[in-house]
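Box S1 | Example of a co-folding query
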Amino acid sequence: MALPAPTPETRAVVTGASSGIGMGLARELAARGHSLILVARRAEVMEELAAELRTTHGVQVEVRGVDLADRDARRVLVTELEDRAVSILCNNAGIATFGAVAELDPQAERDQVELNTVAAHDLTLAVLPGMIDRGVGGILITGSAAGNMAVPHNATYAATKAFVNTFSESLRHELRGTGVHVTLLAPGPVRTEIPDPDEESIVDKMVPDFLWVSVEYTAKLSLDALAANKMRVVPGVLSKAMSVAGQYSPRAISAPVVSAFYRKLGG
Ligand SMILES: NC(=O)c1ccc[n+]([C@@H]2O[C@H](COP(=O)([O-])OP(=O)(O)OC[C@H]3O[C@@H](n4cnc5c(N)ncnc54)[C@H](OP(=O)(O)O)[C@@H]3O)[C@@H](O)[C@H]2O)c1
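Box S1 (continued) | Returned holo structure for NAP
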């Protein structure tokens, strides 16, 4: 089993490609010869990445500056992707808020649901018929270890990730025998940038360096897992521990413990 072979016509789509894990996935896909469509809001950052990837790997790279939380803007992209030969979709863009839901900006909470769940769902539905028709495709969905548990003070985020975790692992089984692979990336902490010592978050302070995994490692592991049609990829020891604890601890016991930690993140 392998990823769809790159061709000049087909595209791998990566959302959230302007930073972090998405940028890592775009780089790794380009290194494997895939031409790309990069999606996020900051088009100028993605244009720089596109130029680098064209030069380094000789692939074609298109940039779509889209606010995926905006239904009208997203519909334009969805309509385009329905008619493109998308070989791989990495549904990766996501945001998280921390704090008590009652005290957070309601619009930001709604946008988070729209981006983390509805946009991922819309884009998947847009590319799926084409992948099934062609008998080949790969869909990587970035969920989170947080989606396995109740996470007070990160409630909207955890709930959105529960949606994508479950959607990914359910869809995968529906697609058996079609040639379309679906893999869930469910990380714990992935270091997307070196923290400024003066601006370290509580997570940066509490999680020792050796427990963080890099964007590059995460991207490579995730694409290897998608090629092998693995159900779930969980990079790193801490992520694996969080994943097991989240899936198998009774929520009545884990929620107060998790709450005490996440309350500090809410500031
Ligand atoms: N890093 C971790 O420790 C970790 C752990 C578990 C799960 N995850 C998940 O991994 C994914 C990537 O996270 P990351 O850590 O790499 O974060 P990141 O560096 O903050 O990247 C987030 C990406 O999403 C894009 N994005 C945000 N809002 C958007 C919007 N409204 N429309 C379109 N694109 C938008 C951002 O681009 P623009 O700002 O240019 O739009 C950026 O490219 C997320 O789904 C996150 O939940 C991360």
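The two ends are 46 Å apart (CA to CA). Residues 16-22, 40-42, 67-69, 92-96, 115, 142, 144, 187, 189-190, 192 surround NAP (CB under 6 Å).
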